[in-house]
Amino acid sequence: MPQRHQIHLDTNAAILLVEGDGPLRDLMRNLTSKASSRPSTILSTSALTISELLVKPLRDGDMRLVEVYRAWGSGLQIVPVASSILDTAAQLRARRNSLKLPDAIHVASALAVATTHFLTDDQGISNSVTNSSSKEPDLFEVCRLDARSLTSLIESLTA
């Protein structure tokens, strides 16, 4: 039986996938393509991500990019920012003062869908955010947007 993957994309992962260039974008495309083709893998993001993605294109009047992001989001499990997510985000922030509210909402959204891998380049998000002590296991693996991490995750999808 294939290993279950629930891969949660932070906003900066989505930007890399849609607007990035070069080898990292190619790795992200490879990752999302492989993930989408496996029934045991689910790609998710927070509803907050879609809102964050739309700000700059709307400000710039780039309706083409607005439509690209709206279409992109339709292929993912979108986690609504419900009151339970906000409550978890508040608990996370209470344990870690330096965690910004949007980041806490992203982490809480990932926790709500039992994420196994969280793709982000935000240094404020780490595995230590998700547990209250170093004795508890990490609830998901934080994967950075670098060649080593993305390649490792792609390999785990093909194992």
Helices and strands, with pairings:
Layout: E1 5-9, H1 11-19, H2 23-36, E2 41-46, H3 47-60, H4 63-73, E3 77-79, H5 83-95, H6 101-112, E4 117-119, E5 141-143, H7 147-158
Parallel strand pairs: 1-2, 1-4, 2-3, 4-5
Helix pairs in contact: 1-2, 2-7, 3-4, 5-6
**Total helix count?**
7
Give the strand line-up of the largest sheet. 3-2-1-4-5
How large is the share of residues in beta strands? 5-15%
Secondary-structure-based class equals alpha/beta
Please state the CA-atom Rg, rounded to the nearest Å.
15 Å
Mean pLDDT: 91
How do the SSEs run, as a string of H and E?
Answer: EHHEHHEHHEEH
Q: Main beta sheet: strand number and arrangement? A: 5 strands, parallel
Task: Describe it.
The protein has 159 residues and is of the alpha/beta class. It has helices spanning 11-19, 23-36, 47-60, 63-73, 83-95, 101-112, 147-158, and strands at 5-9, 41-46, 77-79, 117-119, 141-143. It has a five-stranded parallel β-sheet with strand order 3-2-1-4-5, sandwiched between helices. Helix 5 (83-95) crosses helix 6 (101-112). The radius of gyration is 15 Å and the shape is globular.
Short note summarizing the structure:
This protein is of the alpha/beta class. It has seven helices and five strands, in the order βααβααβααββα.
